[in-house]
Amino acid sequence: MRQLELERPTKIKRKFGMTLREKRIKRVAYLFVLPAVLFFLAMNAYPLVTVLWDSFQYKNLMNKALSGWAGLANYTEVIHNEYFRKALWNTVVWTVLSVAGEYVLGLISAFALNQKIKGRTVFRAIIIVPWVVPIVVAGLTWTWMLTPDYGIINLWLVKLHILDEPVYWLGELDTALLTVVFVNIWRSFPFFTISLLAGLQSVSRDIVEAAAIDGAGVRKRFFYIVLPQLKTVSLTMIFIHVIWTAINFDFIWVMTEGGPLYSSETLPIMIYRYAMQDYNFGNASALASLMLGFMMACFVIYYMMTVKKNRR
Amino acid sequence: MLISRGKQRFLTILTYVVLLGFSVYCLFPFLWMVVTSLKPDAEIRTVDPSFWISTPTFKHFDNVLNNSKFLTFFKNSLMIASITTVASLLISIFTGYALSRYGRFRGVKLFSVAMLLSQMIPGVLLLIPLYLVMKNLGLINTYASLILAYTTFTVPLCTFMMKSFFDSIPIEMEESAEIDGCTRVGIIFRILLPVSLPSLVATSLFAFLNAWNEFMFGFVFINDEAHRTLTPGISLFKGLYQTDWGSLMASSVLSVLPIVILFVFLQKFLVEGMTAGAVKG
């Protein structure tokens, strides 16, 4: 339907050049997108260019004497920061574990919600709830449940003899980041649930039935019919979430502020420290540009993957 | 039937078990939040906590509401989120319409790609230049700074949601309205929007949630108590109340309340909107 409608004006254009009506419509079209374009230019494009430009400048609000072209000095300084590697590694751990956990939970819950059972809408509503609360509130509530003194999770784990004594989950070097990952999974997996559920519901029942008639068992139908059909949704969701998670500032800041001893510091936290604690905007911009480059690389990979798939 | 009855029964039971597990997982923190906020300190600080509150108290709520700036923060958040919602809705209705109907123009198409890409530019990267822009314009510590930032970051997704709703409305309706002498803006407001009311609700809900839940910009752009929004406010309570978990949980309950109320009534729309934005967009 839509395809046809879109083609009609092009045909007119080809025959008679641009009609008067078409010209008027074009003006309206550009007028309609104008406000969004203005916002985009002022609040996305301009700051983006500034970040790239500043990354080659000495720009330190604490030391205004030093200014001007810096070349790659900011980049080398950032990369040689003693915590850079740690932060990079933390970012990778944080992103991979979070997205993997979210995907697995999302898939399981989506399958469960796709079954024809009573109370499905109620369960669906319950499962989305974590996603609508502010990250700050989620972080605060889990921090309370995880405190070593009187935190309910510690008390229960000790009571069940899984732990000998309460653990300061957010305060130990080796558990802080993993604990925040756990809470992030709790809050973010519902988004996967909803999207995968929508994907599942579009899996054609005919194909599944045909496979069943051909003698494919439950397991085979799942792995060879249903999962492949979820591939596009999954790929898109994972791609979006890798980026959203890698750049997330709120969760880690609210729960640990990157501590203890930088053990849960990721690159966004580092950018924030450079900018808002050291006021070294040059270094912060350099780190931001590095992250931007990394994300562009991700995008290119994703784009190649989808293009390749479409060609096949 | 695709599977035997025995297997079917097993599957149903398994489904219920899984869903119940998920429900507990998702709701337990909220339950504990509410329980803690209603307990007196002596019951919070015990090694044997229970769900039963023997002497429920509103002391913590009283403390949060009367001895802190909570109400100011709440009011600020409400105002900023509402204005953001209206602004991004207005902008994205027009942009979404243009993207849906006039995608054939090169400029419009280019902008839609640019907007899609802008979704991938993280706020943290733009934080520094935006902070400087706001500082130079003298907008630090004003509502305007946050409204501008939030609107910018919600417009793209709202636009794609509106576009996919407009896509599903047949163009014939507009054509007949046009013949009857309706203007373009008239078509949008008199013909399209009444038809897509549920989608409008979903989009505005989405914009509101985004603005209400945002933390980072509110944390950086606002430094004075009178203009602070709820999310940074609560995170600062953490330092203020130290280990007074009763008050902290009371403030959490109060800040989640409006969202939960919105959510209970509009849950269906939100799900539709999320899937429209995520899968089709």
UniProtKB/TrEMBL annotation, chain A:
It comes from the Bacteria. GO terms for cellular component: plasma membrane. Keywords: Cell membrane, Membrane, Transmembrane, Transmembrane helix, Transport. The keyword Cell membrane applies. GO terms for biological process: transmembrane transport. It is found in: Cell membrane. The keyword Metal-binding does not apply. PROSITE patterns: ABC_TM1 (PS50928). InterPro entries: MetI-like, MetI-like_sf. Its main location: membrane. Gene3D superfamilies: MetI-like (1.10.3720.10). It is a multi-pass membrane protein. The chain crosses the membrane at residues 28-53, 92-113, 125-147, 167-186, 222-247, 284-305. Residues 88-302 form the ABC transmembrane type-1 domain. Belongs to the binding-protein-dependent transport system permease family. This is Carbohydrate ABC transporter membrane protein 1 (CUT1 family).
UniProtKB/TrEMBL annotation, chain B:
Residues 74-266 form the ABC transmembrane type-1 domain. InterPro entries: BP-dep_ABC_trans_perm, MetI-like, MetI-like_sf. The chain crosses the membrane at residues 12-35, 78-99, 111-134, 146-166, 187-209, 245-266. It is found in: Cell membrane. PROSITE patterns: ABC_TM1. Pfam families: BPD_transp_1. CDD domains: TM_PBP2 (cd06261). One of its GO terms (biological process) is transmembrane transport. It comes from the Bacteria. Its main location: membrane. GO terms for cellular component: plasma membrane. Keywords: Cell membrane, Membrane, Transmembrane, Transmembrane helix, Transport. It is a multi-pass membrane protein. Belongs to the binding-protein-dependent transport system permease family. This is Carbohydrate ABC transporter membrane protein 2 (CUT1 family).
